[in-house]
Amino acid sequence: MRGVLVYGFQSLLGWAQLALGVYAAVMLIDAAVRRDDAYRAADKQTKPMWLIFLALATLLLFVMPLMSFLPIIGVIAVIVYTVDVRPALRHATGGGGGPRRGGSSSDGPYGPYNGGR
């Protein structure tokens, strides 16, 4: 019974690693098609730096086992690009990262933010 559980866990981990590797490759392509000046406008690292980070993350996710230390660092780099850099790049290029429904840049989730006044 224990062998079946270990095999099932390893199979699940293998699928998770494959999904993370594919997602890292998609984020690498996303970073490659962004304009170089958008990285400077968003005040993020340079485009070549993010291409190196994401390429290494993609390579590590496809080559090394997920429970190793280096692929975990690669996953963290992909997460940082996804939640921080990519929205800033979209906002810098005017592509969907700004406010919706005609609001201003100071609108919060419950309406305009007036700085505590």
TrEMBL record:
Region of interest (Disordered), ranges: 90-117
Keyword Ribonucleoprotein set for record: no
Biased composition (Low complexity): 102-117
Transmembrane intervals: 12-29, 50-83
Pfam family, one: DUF2516
Cell membrane recorded as keyword: no
Protein name: DUF2516 family protein
Source species taxonomy: Bacteria, Bacillati, Actinomycetota, Actinomycetes, Kitasatosporales
